[in-house]
Amino acid sequence: MLLLPWRRGGASTAARALLARRLHGACYFSEPDDDPPFTRIVERLPRAPAEAAVKREAQGGGIRPPEPAHSDLPFDFRYSYSETDPAWRPIGFREPTRFSPFGPGRLDRPWDGVAAALVGGEATAAVATSREEALGEPLSEEEVAQLVERYRHSDCSRQINLGKGGVTHNMLDDIHNHWKRAEAVRIKCLGVPTLDMDNICFHLEDKTGGKIIYRNLNIIILYRGRNYDPKQRPEIPLMLWKPLAPIYPRLVQNVADGLTFEKTKELRNMGLNSPPLMKLTRNGVYVNVVDRVREAFKTVEVVRLDCSHVGSSDCKKIGVKLRDLVPCVPLLFKDEQIILWRGKLNQETEES
Fold it and tell me: Which of 69, 89, 64 is nearest to 249 (CA)?
């Protein structure tokens, strides 16, 4: 009668009032566990500080920077070893010299804008002794033939491409990485450095401590040595970016040494009107360029090289190398054309 009062016609008004009072009072005397979903959640307590943070604060706070790297290599660190000469003195810089390409505080050698000079004088005799120990006994002809046959092909997986930067600093680390799992590495040279392959071979052997066992045009195979141990490889800190090239004195003078302005202008016009000796391509192999220029100077006084597909930057680098290797006097770099004069010294030697 209390639950279903509306179905009984004789239900009293007092019973209905009692049921309504019970239903109305149930919401006030409900159990504490029956919280509605919108009840406010108590905020979380703050985390306890980590042990590492407590130790840092005890040591004075802040993150301690890593110690600068140290290397025992007995030479100055440069971006390129084969394309720069320590005798060249720049007249200016394109970026502040305080910014080292090795990163701030990552190397114990100061950066002067061109190189990270060696601090202190490490004994070169000890380095030469360690290199001889790593090379061990010389290879026999049969062993050399086996290594050459394994690494000389173009599909060799142990290959490093050497471009217009020449023998760069980070390339030394790449060579040692290949030497971890291979006895030799194949190096393919292209571009301006191929004008002087002897210079490339010298720096590869001098900076890595290896031995060149094969050389054909622009292909080099560099052997690591019999007793090479990858765990004892030298520490080579990497350059994080390529530094901007310094500013050097002007390559082509308005008046060549030993000539008048009229004679210099006459030689320039003669070179522009003469047929080009060679037409160079971008990232080509320039192994025979020096010999051909020397042969041409035996019969003509001025030589023109067509560098229309090379680029202005590489065109200037080619002129600098030819000036030192031939030797000759650069007269003009215009419209990517190189005009070279054999000079008075070569002319007097030829006449005598």
Answer: 89
Q: What is the pLDDT of residues 294-303, one digit of tens each?
A: 999 999 999 9
> What are the structure tokens assigned to 48, written together?
């306890």
Q: What is the model's pTM?
A: 0.76
Return the H-helix or E-strand segment holding 331: strand 329-334
Q: Which residues contact 121 (CB under 8 A, 6 or more apart)?
A: none
Helix (H) / strand (E) element for 278: namely strand 278-279
Sign of the torsion formed by the C-alpha atoms of 216, 221, 223 and 224: positive
For residue 341, what is the enclosing H or E element?
A: strand 337-341
Cβ count within 10 A of residue 292: 14
Residue 257 CA to its chain's centroid (Å)? 38
**Other CB atoms closer than 10 Å to residue 343's CB: what's the count?**
20
Sign of the dihedral through C-alpha 210, 214, 217, 219: negative
209: left (phi over 0), alpha (psi -120 to 50) or beta: left
Torsion, Cα of 321, 237, 90, 344 (10° steps): -20
User: pLDDT (tens digit, 9 = 90+) per residue, 193-203?
Assistant: 999 999 999 99
Task: Output DSSP code: residue 61.
Answer: S
Classify 155 in phi/psi space as left (phi over 0), alpha (psi -120 to 50) or beta.
Answer: alpha
User: What phi and psi values does residue 247 have, to the nearest 5 degrees?
Assistant: -95, 125
Q: How far apart are CA 42 and CA 96, in angstroms?
A: 57
Closest to 330 measured CA to CA, from 340, 344, 343, 320: 340
Number of Cβ within 10 Å of residue 322's Cβ equals 23
Question: How many C-alpha atoms does 117 have within 13 Å on its Cβ side?
Answer: 7
